[in-house]
């Protein structure tokens, strides 16, 4: 069975959280995960390491400027906040589409 069939990868577009802070956190969590996978597995995993790296840098900048994100991370367990945000990203079943949606919402300037 293909990975898509086995893990029920869904075709189509992903939907980001409406709240910008939540979108930043979920995108950052998934982009960081994918970046690590791309760096360790290269083309076998899929994805473009340079593109993911650039997205991660943009998200880091957005995180540092968003008071809601900073409050969530400082006011609680930062690891738990990021893990919760990551769940929503993975729950949609299409990490590549989610990364594309993140790239579209947080474009390079």
Could you describe the 3D structure shown?
With 109 residues, the chain is mainly alpha-helical. The chain has one domain (18-105). It has six helices and no strands. It has helices at residues 3-6, 20-41, 49-65, 67-75, 78-91, 95-105. The radius of gyration is 14 Å and the shape is globular. The chain starts with a helix and ends with a helix. The model has no long low-confidence stretch (mean pLDDT 82).
Task: Briefly say what this structure is.
The protein is mostly helical. It has helices at residues 3-6, 20-41, 49-65, 67-75, 78-91, 95-105. Helix content is 71%, strand content 0%.
Report the order of strands and helices: HHHHHH
Poorly predicted runs are none
* Molecular shape: globular
How many domain regions?
A: 1
Number of H/I helices: 6
Secondary-structure content class = mainly alpha
Overall mean confidence score, pLDDT: 82
- Report the span from N to C terminus: 41 Å
By DSSP, the count of extended strands is 0
Oligomer: single chain
Task: Give helix % range.
Answer: over 70%
Largest sheet: none
Strand content: under 5%
Question: What labels would you give this structure?
Answer:
109 residues, mainly alpha, 71% helix
Outline the secondary-structure elements.
Blueprint: H1 3-6, H2 20-41, H3 49-65, H4 67-75, H5 78-91, H6 95-105
Helix pairs in contact: 2-3, 2-5, 2-6, 4-5
């Amino acid at each position: 069975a293909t990975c898509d069939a086995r893990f029920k990868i869904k075709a189509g577009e992903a939907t980001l959280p409406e709240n910008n802070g939540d979108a930043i956190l979920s995108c950052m969590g998934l982009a960081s995960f994918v970046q690590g996978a791309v760096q360790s597995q290269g083309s076998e995993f899929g994805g473009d390491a340079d593109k993911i790296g650039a997205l991660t840098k943009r998200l880091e900048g957005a995180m540092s400027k968003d008071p809601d994100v900073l409050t969530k991370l400082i006011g609680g367990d930062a690891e738990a906040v990021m893990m919760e945000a990551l769940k929503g990203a993975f729950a949609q079943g299409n990490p590549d589409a989610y990364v594309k949606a993140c790239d579209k919402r947080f474009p390079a300037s």
